[in-house]
Write a structure and sequence with these properties.
Layout lengths: L10 H4 L6 H12 L7 H21 L3 H12 L6 E3 L4 E3 L1 H13 L14 H9 L10 H21 L1 E2 L10 H12 L4 H13 L7 H5 L7 H17 L8 H9 L1 E2 L31 H14 L7 E8 L1 H4 L9 H5 L2 H11 L9 H4 L2 H7 L2 E5 L1 H4 L8 E7 L4 E6 L12 H16 L1 H12 L8 H7 L8
Parallel strand pairs: 5-6
Antiparallel strand pairs: 1-2, 3-4, 5-7, 7-8
Helix pairs in contact: 2-9, 3-5, 3-20, 3-21, 4-5, 5-6, 5-11, 6-7, 6-8, 6-11, 7-8, 8-9, 8-11, 9-11, 9-12, 13-16, 16-18, 20-21, 21-22
Amino acid sequence: MSIVTPNIVPASVLLAEPRPAWLSQWGQFASEIQFKDLDKALIEQAKLVLLDCVGAIASGMQEPETQALLARLVRRESGQGFAAIGAGRRLGSPEAAFVNGVAGTMLELDEGNQFARGHPGIHVLPAALVARAPAEIGGRAFLLAFILGYEIGARVGAASRLRNTLHPHGTWGTIGAAFAAAHLDGAGAEALVETINVSSSLSLGTSLRTMLEGATVRNSYAGFSARNGLAAWDLVASGFTGEIDGVRSVYDGVLAEGFKPEEMVAELGRRWEIQRNYFKRHAACRFTHGALDVVARLIAEHGALGQAAIARIEVETYVWAAQLDAPAPANMLAAKFSLPFAIATTLVHGEASVPAFRAPALSDARIGDLAGRVVVSEDPALTAMLPDLRPARVAIHFADGRVLSGETFTNRGDARDPYSPDEVRAKFADLAGPVWGEAHAERIRRAIETLDEAADLVALDALLAAPPLKDE
């Protein structure tokens, strides 16, 4: 018997396929590696990523939508469990993972990875923090699991091309979250492989249009990844099974295409994706950052540019940044994904800060008028530089004929032009200080930076569970 319909493979052929070698290699690698095998630079980078994620979660937890979501979740809980970071509340593990993931993406300030084309840390951390009781997890075990979860998720992102209509949040981050949870629970090589296969089937099919329209359901995707990651490990630990090659099925057909299995093991254990990450200071989509870096540099060199005297602003950049050309966003989320608005509000406020995208900025006639004078276009030569570079050219034309211009090929904060550790710490202080006060934020920073010396996570958990200042 044979099948003549194109692209349909008989089950007898599918079921004869062996497990791919990279999966077995990953299971063996992750089950055997120990904390002592990690070099100091890698460990310190992981701590910076943890610090950055905690700051983003705590600050995002103060947003009205996050507070309303938290209130609904708290009504269903007894108050025991894990910290909703920056809320002074405790929830069961699935709910805590979910709300922390949601909060971490609210302000568009969480770290990311340009090679994975997404944000690994904020998908993995919320699941890792609730995988075991704090008293049961040593600091070194936690750091190792977080690094491995980040690594597997980011590599799936780098090894495949998500469909152009798909938002990366909620996709391969689910695999990273599940893997970290499984590793913290002592999963062996076979269970780790099964976790990869099961969690791949629990990846979300997320719409890219949500970010363009300002549909804030988009901010839930990382929370669902964390929660689904926990569920994936619970399923595997309970005896449920996945496909023989779930990653290829989902990331070379369902959600993505062009999956390259060789990328999953290239320099495995020598090249770490967490060391190729980026940190964000502009509170907007990463695709806007090249142009915003140029604008920030022009402001630093020339002072306030007098937006009323600007005739037009021309931006040439790569395709994904050029797509963000809507000049009149409807809400804060849409504003963060509008290159004209981001440039205009930066010129008015002097920086792309959190307040620069809030409601008062959205209703500011000066910003709206200036955003309407921004013209964005794609330069195919700049698109061709992806993913290694994230280029942009900006030319500000004044009514008197003057032109100020600049270009960049990297984004501040990425692996080629990184922020210093002190700059990342300063960002954390800016985000966490208003939530808990400077002294408490400093205690959290010290706890994270000495996490490899901690026998358990009890002290860190208590610090993260502290109520915000407004609740004291």
